[in-house]
Design goal:
277 residues, alpha/beta, Rossmann fold, two-stranded antiparallel ribbon, binds glutamine, Release factor glutamine methyltransferase, transferase, nucleic acid binding
């Protein structure tokens, strides 16, 4: 029977070379509870039949387009491994730019009140909370299923300084004021062809698309912010690569000062912010 036993190498060879092979390594590593280094060093290792079958099923789903993060239920963000489900957007590297910029503003021992609007998996709120344990962070989301994922992530990482509230944008925060508000809202234009391609097809559309120009939710967040920021408080927003000018204009029109934009690693304008009062 030895001849029929699948090995690590044999299973991986079923995936086409290139990105799909690398992704197959992630899928098999996930099922075996091993990292890529282990797989490559143990490629003769026999794989139990039920694991081989599970791998083939996941690999087939990947070949049909499903994102690797939804197949493994995991995605790394900042220093945290986060649970993800199709209820939440898969955290992206460009969003780490927003975290970086927020951390540059928050002094190490600050006891700030911080809000993350539309938290999804909790990525931004939990990254900030882990780096600034003295801050009190509120993370909101309109979708209870997303909040359940975010809460799971907080528990998994033992993060206690984030409170989760259900509701659209400012609605659950009435009467509350913050030193810093961050958000990665939906910002893709409704008719953007990018929504019909690749991994984003499997992500929640309401977390991606925001009206004709993709600015609908950014407008709601910016116009509501002055009522929720302490004097000198800051609003920091992720936006599309081509929305920097529009977002700066919206911020200035709403009365923000020191309005600035920062680029992501790809050199695109990605994060804009300003100070209130
Ligand atoms: N950057 C994401 C994308 O283009 C969009 C994320 C968002 O809308 N907040 O897929």
């Amino acid at each position: 029977m030895q001849g029929n036993t699948d090995t690590v190498r044999g299973l991986l060879a079923e995936a086409p070379r290139g990105d799909l092979r690398r992704e197959a390594e992630i899928l098999l590593g996930h099922l075996l509870g091993r990292d890529r280094g282990w797989l490559l060093a143990h490629d003769d290792e026999p794989v139990p039949p039920e694991t081989a079958a599970a791998f083939r099923a996941l690999h087939a789903r990947r070949m049909a387009g499903e994102p690797v993060a939804y197949l493994t239920g995991r995605r790394g963000f900042w220093t945290l491994e986060l649970c993800v489900t199709p209820d939440v957007l898969i955290p992206r590297p460009e969003t780490e730019r927003l975290v970086e910029q927020a951390l540059a503003c928050i002094p190490e021992d600050a006891r700030w009140d911080v809000a993350d609007l539309g938290t999804g998996s909790g990525a931004i709120a939990l990254a900030l909370a882990s780096e600034r344990p003295a801050c009190r962070i509120v993370a909101t989301d309109a979708n209870p299923a997303a909040l359940a994922v975010a809460r799971t992530n907080a528990e998994r990482h033992g993060i206690r300084n984030v409170a989760f509230l259900e509701g659209e944008w400012w609605q659950p925060l009435q009467g509350r004021h913050f030193h810093l508000v961050v958000s990665n809202p939906p910002y893709v234009a409704d008719d953007d062809p990018h929504l019909a391609r690749g991994d984003v097809r499997f992500e929640p559309r309401h977390a991606l698309a925001a009206g004709e120009q993709g600015l609908d939710d950014l407008k709601v967040i910016i116009s509501g912010a002055p009522a929720h920021l302490h004097p000198g408080g800051m609003l920091l927003l992720e936006h599309g690569y081509d929305q920097g000018e529009a977002v700066r204009r919206l911020l200035r029109e709403a009365g923000f000062r020191d309005v600035e934009t920062w680029q992501d690693l790809a050199g695109h304008e990605r994060v804009s912010g300003g100070l209130w009062g």
